[in-house]
Amino acid sequence: MPHSYSRLLGLLVVAGALSTSACQRRADSDSAQASPADIGFDRYKERFIDSLWYYNPGWASSQGFHKYDAVLFIPTAGRRQVENQAAARGLKELRGFAFDSLSPNNQTDYLMMVNQLRTTRWQNDTLRGWEWNPAQYNLSEPVAEILNGRYQPLAARLRSISSKINRATEYYAAAENNLRNPTKEHLELAILQNRGGLEVFGPALLDSVNRAELPAREKDELRARIETTRQAMQEYVHFLDKELRPQARRSFRIGPELFEQKFRYDIVASASADDVFRRAQAHKQELLQDMNRRATRLWPKYFAGQPLPADTLARIREVIRKLSEKHAPPAGFVAAVRQQIPQLVQFVDAKKLLTQDPTKPLVVRETPLYMRGSGAGASVSAPGPYDKGADTYYNVEPLDGQPAAQAESYLREYNDYTLQILNIHEAIPGHYTQLVYANRSPSIIKAVLGNGAMIEGWAVYAERMMLESGYAGGSDEIWLMWDKWNMRVTLNTILDHLVQTGTIAEPQAVQLLMRDGFQEEAEARNKWRRATLSQVQLSSYFTGYSEIMALRDELKQKQGKSFDLKNFNEQFLSYGSAPVKYIRRMMLR
Ligand code: ZN
Ligand code: ZN
């Protein structure tokens, strides 16, 4: 499930990156390029991050940085002006550094910092989500982050929460004041999420207050603030539902111009959004042709004596259905994953695809109870940037407790073929391996601002690279299933573009995903909903993947016989989680 991990991966990529400043110093003095410019720039990065956290206290809490937990900014016009001024100041400070005298690691950091500051201004002045997206306002999320952050004692966390919600009424009043002509889709989402968010201020929080070691006076104050916050949230929901709804006429489609800009800020690709869209359409046709070729070859093996369907899509669908029957038993699912990890390690070594670090093994475990039920069957989790040295885990959710029909449907999706692709993607040499490399060039900037398209693109590229190297025998079966898997990220890009810059309606979108993507209706309808609520994010997987493939082709062309896959992989990963565009610049010079 490559789609639900961006948040987890935010944490993941960051793991260990900051854990020791000694490590950072060693890295700098070891490299011959540790110039005075780099030393000065490293100091500036610390300040930059502190300022980033100061202006984004909720984001900071979610990364395990708790200095600004107690801070809540009221989202007024004055506040946006202050943010823009801070961004302008940051850009001016960055211009004071001589880019060319910085190390490659710092140069990529520099470019990411510039992009971050420009993005802030663009969001405030041009995209203006604060005006049309009511779901931007929700106090329950930052409060839940603080409450669940276990690294501080309960009393300290509750004090932070008490300060944070002290101005809840003002916060929601500013939200109501900002909003005009929202989209109906984001309005519905805001109602749902704020209503749901009331739970954060419910009995569990009050229990914590009762149990905490705080003076009675502080407890009373906090209980009163919790009540006020609940009222403010209910009033906000009422406002959205009764007053704002008639004005909710804005289209959820941001249109071609804003889409192209958002693509530039969020994805940071070499190609334009339009180019990537065309690339995805061409790739879709290639995938369908490849699937047809393989399904046709496989037909007699699985359907001996039965006539080959004339309709190629039906042919592919039948073979996929047949192959999906081969899967682990519910009780053996975790064991199947556990067994594959050493095989992946071995294959990567044997084929010399990249150097692995045997001192940092990935620990496969059953997903802890408190993390279950999110729908993510497998995920990688690593300690956050501000807590030290713990293991990295590959969480796999056991299926034996699930209703039989549900487990069966899940196992058909993660059958013997796609399970291998999933493990490559999530673990080796996908996300987990990328993380190990990223941590070798420790960068607070890449830990915090890591580029999602690069991270997801690498994991998708890793799947393909493994199959190209002959993993799973390079059989028609595994390639056909990879094609289907890859079709999902390809169609995500196509759908994102058609929804946000075009006029496609739900029935056509669902039909596209079911027919050309071989998806179930439920998955297709969820995807439609996601495509109306987010912009550009759905394009990140395919964009990152195709940019890495394009870079590899470019280097193959340039280097001819001397091109070496291992060198390519290792050099690519050595820059940390920077956008492929910046890595390309470093690798081509
Ligand atoms: Zn992924
Ligand atoms: Zn079955």
Structure description:
The structure is a single chain. This protein has 589 residues and is mainly alpha-helical. It has a domain at 134-182 and 184-247. The chain is built from 28 helices and three strands. It has helices at 6-14, 21-30, 36-55, 57-62, 77-95, 104-127, 129-132, 140-148, 154-164, 168-178, 184-197, 203-211, 216-244, 255-267, 273-302, 312-323, 333-350, 404-413, 418-426, 431-438, 444-449, 452-468, 476-501, 506-517, 521-533, 540-559, 565-573, 580-588, and strands at 363-366, 378-381, 393-396. The chain has a three-stranded mixed sheet. Helix 11 (184-197) runs antiparallel to helix 13 (216-244). The longest helix is centred in the middle third of the chain and has 30 residues, at 273-302. The radius of gyration is 25 Å and the shape is globular. It binds zinc ion (2 copies). One zinc ion binds next to helix 18.
Q: What is the topology?
A:
Elements: H1 6-14, H2 21-30, H3 36-55, H4 57-62, H5 77-95, H6 104-127, H7 129-132, H8 140-148, H9 154-164, H10 168-178, H11 184-197, H12 203-211, H13 216-244, H14 255-267, H15 273-302, H16 312-323, H17 333-350, E1 363-366, E2 378-381, E3 393-396, H18 404-413, H19 418-426, H20 431-438, H21 444-449, H22 452-468, H23 476-501, H24 506-517, H25 521-533, H26 540-559, H27 565-573, H28 580-588
Parallel strand pairs: 1-3
Antiparallel strand pairs: 2-3
The structure holds zinc ion (2 copies).
Q: C-alpha Rg, in Å?
A: 25 Å
Widest sheet, order of strands:
1-3-2
Low-confidence stretches: 1-30
Distance between the termini: 36 Å
Look at the helices and sheets and give the structural class. Answer: mainly alpha
Instruction: Provide the β-strand percentage band.
Output: under 5%
Bound molecules: zinc ion
Multimeric organization:
single chain
